Amino acid sequence: MSQFSRRKILAAGAAGGALTATAAAHAAGVFGNPDMPPQGQMNSTPGAFAEPGPQDPVMASQVASFGNPPPTDVGGLPAFWSSFNLAPKRVQGGGWARQVNTEMFPISKDIAGVNMRLGAGGIRELHWHQQAEWAVMVYGSCRVTAVDQNGHAFVDDVKAGDLWYFPAGVPHSLQGLGPDGCEFVIAFDNGASSENNTLLVSEWIAHTPPEVLAKNFGVPESAFANIPLQQRWIFQGKVPGPLANDVNEIMPGAGPVPNPFVFRLSSMKPNKQTKSGMVQIQDSTNFKAATTVASALVTVKPGGMREMHWHPTADEWQYFIKGTGRMTLFNVGPKAITADFNPGDVGYVPKNFGHYVENTGTDDLVFMEIFKTNKYEEISLTDWLAHTPSAMVQQTLNLSPETIAKFSRTVQDVVPA
Questions:
Q1: What pLDDT is recorded for position 31?
Q2: Are 29 and 71 in contact (CB under 8 A)?
């Protein structure tokens, strides 16, 4: 089909013969196939589309859109899908951890992710990082402790849906509570960060001469006779007692931190809510301690969609908690690539890439959007077009005034499919 005849078909649809034009375009392999030659299974014979060679159907089914992309996909982009489900675990007595950073997910330059489990009493030993640590609890409960740069102390218990944030250099510890410990996902504000390169108190003590330790702590050298000589990292400890006991013990001579390191995201009123879902946003305006990471907890009901939008100031790192979804990224070129996401998967959207996320399952789709920035910002495609002079939109997209008048004039975030 020539470009001239193709434009005629599209123009006919805009002029009012929508059904006739759509049928004609479909028959000619144009509708949903804006590139020449048109792509997608709809343009292929069964034999040509088949995969007779070696394959792993189970793995392929997890990201089905890679093997059978929508016909509107075009070009190529760096892999923006990864998964904790494929990351090797490091397992120790008190729990385990696995990570997704730039070593296995090169596109993720701003954020590195760690998925960690601590059994009841399991301890992630006293440590600190060269990067800020943000985390979301996905299961159970955990006790967190920290001391800030001014000597203020912090201790609190967190449960599923809660967040914590420790600035770079702030020492802290984590411990699973009863009855079944906890699981959480950490995001470091540097994609190259690794859970294996943290600064551990056990290693520093082990590599300091005994006479220096004695001088530093004001106790005899013999007091350090039984220190561990290797890192503890994650080890089994005793389930801690009531939170109040720890608060009363650590606060004298320190006082509380001015801005708590914990935030109850899942308990807050949604910033945006429609019949198809909601978005709950955290950034430095409501979680003042979190100066380098902002996030949004997104819930999309079956049939709903996280609307077409982009983020102008920061890349988006995604962690999928529940349900199944499908996301398409759009960039110049044009380039448009689609991927499917399941619980435990990770997505990445470079800033200013257009994207949307559909709920493709029968349960709620729940995922985190995480950004290396102090302020959450987004631009909605619908909102932009609804607040652009109608004549401009009509002439650009061949849309009728009646169609444009139906565009929402407020950002919805989650829309019906």
A1: 66
A2: no
CATH of the domain at 211: 2.60.120.10
In a domain, 71, yes or no: no
Provide mean pLDDT across the span 357-374.
Answer: 98
Query: Are residues 285 and 412 located together in one domain of the fold?
Result: yes
Q: How confident is the model at residue 208 (pLDDT cuts 50, 70, 90)?
A: very high
Domain assignment of residue 322, given as a range: 265-416
Is 377 among the residues known to form the active site? no
Q: Are 207 and 155 in contact (CB under 8 A)?
A: no
Q: Given 242, 263, 284, which residue is the final one in a domain?
A: 263
Query: Is 181 contained in some domain?
Result: yes
pLDDT tens across 278-290, in order? 999 999 999 999 9
Crossing angle of the two packed helices 18-27 and 3-15, in degrees rounded to 10: 150
Domain-embedded: residue 348: yes
Residue 186 CB contacts under 8 Å (≥ 6 apart), including other chains = 113, 114, 115, 116, 133, 134, 135, 195
Cβ atoms of 165 and 260 within 8 Å: the answer is no
Which tokens is 103 given?
Answer: 């070593």
Residue of 125, 195, 203, 369 marked active site: 369
